[in-house]
Amino acid sequence: MNISDALPTSKESTASERLAALIADYKPLPGIPDEFIGPDGRPRDYWLRYLNSLTDLGADDIGRRFATADRHIHDSGVSYRSYGDTRERTWPLSHLPLLIEANEWREIAAGIEQRAELMERVVADIYGEGALIAAGDLPAAAVTGSADFLHPLHGVTPPGGRFLHFYAADLGRGPDGRWWVVGDRAQAPSGAGYALANRLVLSRAFPALYRDMNVERLAPFFQAFRYGLTSLAERSDPRICLWTPGPLNETYFEQAYLARYLGFILVEGGDLTVRDGKVHVRTIAGLKRADVIWRRIDGDFADPLELNSQSRLGVAGLVEAVREGGVVLANALGSGVLEAPAMMSFMPKLCRKLLGEELRLPNIATWWCGQQKERASVIADFDDLAIGGAFGNPVLRFPQNQPVIAGLLNADEKARLIDAIGERGIDYVGQEVVNLSTTPVWNDDRLTPRPFVLRVYAARTENGWTIMPGGFCRISDRADARAVSMGGGVQSADVWVLADKPVEMITLLPSNETARIRRLMGNLPSRAADNLFWLGRYLERVEATLRLIRCLAGRMINTDAETGTTAWTVSKVIGLLVAWHAAPKSAASNPLALCAVALHSEENYGSALSLVRDARRAASVIRERLSADTWRLIGELDQMLGVDQKPLLSEAEAYDRADLALRAIAALSGLAQENMNRGAGWRLFDIGRRVERAINSCRFARQFAGPTAPSDDLEVLLDLADSQITYRSRYLMGVGLSTVRDMVMLDPFNPRSVAFQLERLDDHLQNLPVLSDDGMPEKPRRQIVKLVAEVTTAVAAELDTDKILSFEKRLLDLAEAVAARYFLQGPHSARADRWSGLA
C-alpha cells in the first residue's frame, strides 16, 4: 500500500501535506526491518504521531530548531575523536530520535537484565571456581587466549563480591524482526555520556514534543547507578572517581561530562597512588582516599607492576590494593574477557547452564574456530559468513576489530584467510552476516532509511540491575551497512522510549532535606590544579599579546607615527612581540604583516592564536570544572583568531581584531570573577592570572619606563596596563615617570598594578590548604610575604629597572614554588607521598 494512505485526514490539510511530502520517497530496504514502517507495510502509529507533531511546527520552525540543536552542540563543545585524530570533531547528532514503544522496550530491558546477570556469573566463575571450564562448558583456550584475561586477578574476589557494575550490549534488529545482540561491552562501556548529551540537546530543541511523546527520563538510571556505587564503599561519605585515560582518548568529552553530571572526581593514572593497600588521590591538600573508581581504561593498562609494564596510564600496586579489598573498581579488572567474540558462541549454552533459561535476546550466530567441528563448519560455509578476530585481533591485513565479509574477498584473500584459520583457528570466529535494521534520518527535507546499532546499558544497584530507558544509537550513512563504528560518516541519535502515560520530571538534584550541606567541593586533584593555574597564565599571556598588537596598530594609525620618539616607541613594541615569539624577526620591517602573524600564526608559539590553543588544551583537561559559557568563549576566541581569517588590509583592521578578542578575554575574566565558586580551583586559576599579569607588568615597565623614557613610551605603558582613564582623572598634567611607575607598579588601588596582584596572591596563598598544621608558612607563602612587604614600602622615584627586574625574577620564582608545592606530577610526584589526614 502507499504510505500516504496511512496518513490521518484533517480539514486543515497543510500539516498532512507536509508530512506526505516528508515521507513520500521513504522506502525501506528490501528484506530489511525498518523502525518507521512495520511488517505490514504501514507506518507505525507512534512514529506517525511524532512526525505529525513535528510537521505541525512548519518548515521554518523545524529548521530553526535543528539549527538550535547544532548550535548547542557546538557551543557546549560536545565532541569526540576517531582513533589517531589530533583535533576533536564536533559531535554528529541526528536531528531525529530513534523511537521505541513501551511494550517492545520492556522485552529489550528484560533481555539486557538477563544478559548482564549471565555475564556476571560467567566472569565470576572464570576468576573464581572455574567450574564451567572444568565441566567442559567453556573451553579454557576461549578464555586464556584473550589478552583481557588477567591471570594475576585469578582467585581474587572484588569487594562486595560483584565483578560488573556497568554493562552494555550492542543490539540490532534481525531479519526476523527480533532484537539481536551483536556485541557485549563489559570492560569499560562508553557512550552513556553521549546518550545524556543527545537527550539534553533534543529535549531543549523540541521541549513540547519531548513532553507530549511521554519520553522516559534518563536521570533515574544515573541516580540509581550513583547510589549503587556509593553503597559499595566502606564509608558513609565516599570519594568516587572516574578514571580516564586522558584528554587524547576518543571519548574524553563524555568522561568529563559524566564526571560533572554525577559529581565524581575525574582522575588520570598520575592522580592516583597506592599506600597501605588503599588507593589515594593526589590533591593539593595531600593524599585523600579513593573509595570507588569507575574506570574507563582497559584492565591490562591498570597496573604497570603486575599487568602491562609499558603502561603509562596505570597505578603501580593497584592489583595488590584490589586483592586486599582496599578499593572498589567498576568494572573489576579482567572483566574485558567477556567482550571477546569467541565468548559469544558459548552464551546460549551458558545461559541454560547458569540461569536455566534461554536467552531472551539471541546472539548473532557465532562459531569459534578453536574447535574442530566449528572450524570445519566455518570453512564449509565460508562465503556466507563474516570472519572476525576471536579476541579483537586483526584479520590478516584488515582493520582491527572489524569482521570481514568472506564473500566479498578476492580469491587470493580467501585462500590466505582459510589457511590462517586452518593453521591457528583459535584466533578466529565465523559469524552470520545479518544486515542491520533501519531507522529514519532527516535528509534534505525528506526521510531516508539508514542502518543503526543500539547500545543499551545496565547498572548494578542494591536492588539488582537497572536498565537505562534509552541508549546510545549510532547510525551509518551507508544504506548497505552491516557493521557500524563511531568513525567518519556515522551519526548518533537520541533514543526515546515512549511510556504509556505522562512521565514525572526527575533530576539528579538531591531532594532529601536531611542531606549534608556542603559549601565547597572536595579536595582538588593536583593535575586539575596544575591545569587551572596554567589556564589562567595562558589567558593572561593572550591578553598581554593582544594589548601589544592593539597598541602597535593604534600607533601606526596615528598620523604622527613617523616622528622620532613615536618610531622609537613602535620599535620597542615590535621588539617585544618578536622577543615573545609572537612573530619572527623577519616580519619586524612590516608592522601590518607582523600584526597578522602575531594574531593568527600557528607556527609562532607566542602568537595570540597559539596561546589561545594552549589555553584550550589546558581547559580540555579540566572540562568537567568549567562552565559551558567558559568553554564556548574559549572556542570563540579560537575561531576569532583562526588561520582561516581573511588577510589584514589595514592597521585599523588589525586594531579591531585585537580589540574584539580582548572583549572575549574580558568576558572570560568576568565569568571567572562572578561565576566560579571561590574554592581552591578558582584560587589556583586566579593565581595563574595574577602572577602572569605581574610578570608582564614588570616587563612592560622595564621596557617603557626606563630612566630616560619619553612621553610616548609612558603613554604606551599606560595603554598596556589599561590605566589611561585612571591616570588622567588623577593627574591633570602630562605623563611623568614617577607617577606612571607608581600607578603601574606600586599603586594597591589600581587593579592592573603589580602591587594589586601581589595582594591578591598573598590572600590566595594564605587560604590554600597546607600539608601540616605546625603553623609554619610554606615556601610560596614565605616568598609572597617578603615580596609584598618590599613592594609596599618601595618608592616610585627610587624604582629603577634593576629593581623592577628583581621583582620580575622573584615572581618567576614564586610561580615555580607554587608549581613545586601544589602540582604533584611528573618528576615531582614524590611530593604527593606526604600524608595529610588521608580523609
TrEMBL record:
Residues 524-823 form the DUF403 domain. Signal peptide: none annotated. InterPro entries: ATP-dep_Glu-Cys_Ligase-2, CP_ATPgrasp_2, DUF403. It holds the Pfam family Alpha-E. It comes from the Bacteria. Residues 97-475 form the Circularly permuted ATP-grasp type domain. This is DUF403 domain-containing protein. The lineage of its organism: Bacteria, Pseudomonadati, Pseudomonadota, Alphaproteobacteria, Hyphomicrobiales.
